[in-house]
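Deliverable D2.4 — example input (structure tokens):
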């Protein structure tokens, strides 16, 4: 097997006309990581991945594989395997030939090719499809052939551009698990592109959240979800309840916040700021729906009254939208346990949360 690659970039940039597709990307991805670029459509994920593969040239900045600068090395000499967003299978070749191509290029013996192609087809659940042309396969099947074609060469760096986007929900989960198992087993450094935040949280060792060509936050799935740095990260990853409020008091570890909708909320600040922001300033914060509780008796702190505006039954969970003022709602998720009661539409409820369950945000 090939040695897995450590990837570093320094101030990597790419511009298309007026669009700054990637702005000063500084990455450091360790050998064997499963690293994900996560962000909305057009934020530069594919461009960054293509620069790492060598299919798009950088305007400036450096790319290092281990200690070697690879900017001027062509894609086929970089020891990378890439699955493209649009599969890019060769239409005139059947499935077997598509997968075997990379092995032939590398001079692998004919006797070995047959077995390796079969194994890779098995990995993606497509045994027996080797004689078909891409045009005779569904989108999801083509996507799996593209994955097999890349895995079969056992590259030192695996670049995957939304490789599961065309699969139905069940197959997607199955392929994701298979991919993760393989990735861990082979230890291949993997860079994965998705705009599916749940998929990113499940698979990744670390995530880079991108917006308009920039990496706006990098961290483990837990850090990204629980300590989002900005409003856009909080909003893009998971469901959020975003607020802006004024600081009316500060103590050793708590801020007291008030706005038109919420009064005297107590919020722990030490995880978010090196020193407490001054009284009178505005802060933004987020509270996740699963951290809000329906309370049974009068809470002393962080008590919010509201009216149930909608309910959604998801089997394992119940999701509520609770109006807390004319213009503001709180999304609240509860587990569907026998011990939790169901709240009716229009019911007056009391909500609460711990001061340490709130994430304070930066501008
Ligand atoms: N070859 C190109 N010529 C001109 N503009 C381009 C080119 N490739 C990408 N862009 C632009 O650069 C920006 C980033 O595109 P990119 O394909 O990297 O986004 P993405 O994050 O992969 O989006 P998606 O999730 O839709 O695939 C977009 O504004 C896009 O229109
Ligand atoms: Mg893309």
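Example output (designed residues):
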């Amino acid at each position: 097997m090939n040695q897995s690659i450590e990837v570093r970039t320094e101030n990597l940039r790419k511009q298309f006309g007026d669009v700054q597709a990637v702005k000063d990307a500084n990455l450091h991805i360790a050998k064997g990581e499963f690293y994900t670029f996560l962000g909305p459509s057009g934020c530069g994920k594919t461009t960054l991945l293509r620069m790492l593969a060598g299919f798009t040239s950088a305007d400036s900045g450096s790319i290092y594989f281990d200690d070697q600068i690879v900017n001027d090395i062509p894609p086929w000499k970089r020891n990378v395997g890439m699955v493209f967003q649009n599969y890019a299978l060769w239409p005139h070749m059947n499935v077997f030939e598509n997968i075997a191509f990379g092995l032939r290029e590398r001079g692998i013996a004919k006797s070995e090719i047959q077995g390796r192609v079969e194994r890779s087809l098995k990995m993606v659940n497509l045994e027996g499809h080797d004689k078909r042309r891409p045009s005779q396969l569904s989108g999801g099947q083509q996507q799996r052939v593209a994955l097999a074609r890349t895995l079969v060469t056992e590259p030192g760096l695996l670049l995957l551009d939304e490789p599961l986007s065309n699969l139905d929900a069940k197959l997607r989960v199955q392929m994701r698990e298979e991919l993760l198992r393989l990735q861990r087993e082979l230890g291949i450094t993997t860079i994965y592109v998705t705009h599916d935040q749940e998929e990113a949280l499940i698979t990744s060792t670390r995530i880079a959240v991108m917006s308009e060509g920039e990496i706006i936050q990098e961290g483990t799935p837990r850090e990204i979800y629980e300590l989002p740095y900005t409003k856009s990260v909080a909003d893009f990853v998971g469901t959020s309840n975003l607020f802006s409020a004024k600081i009316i008091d500060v103590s050793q570890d708590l801020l007291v916040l008030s706005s038109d909708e919420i009064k005297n909320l107590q919020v722990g600040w030490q995880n978010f700021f090196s020193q407490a922001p001054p009284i009178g300033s505005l802060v933004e914060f987020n509270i996740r729906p699963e951290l809000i509780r329906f309370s049974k008796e009068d809470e002393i702190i962080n008590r919010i009254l509201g009216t149930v505006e909608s309910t959604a039954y998801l089997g394992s969970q119940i999701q509520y939208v609770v109006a807390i003022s004319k213009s503001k709602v709180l999304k609240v998720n509860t587990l569907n346990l026998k011990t939790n009661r169901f709240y009716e539409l229009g019911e007056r409820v009391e909500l609460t949360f711990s001061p340490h369950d709130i994430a304070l945000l930066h501008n």
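The chain has a mean pLDDT of 93.
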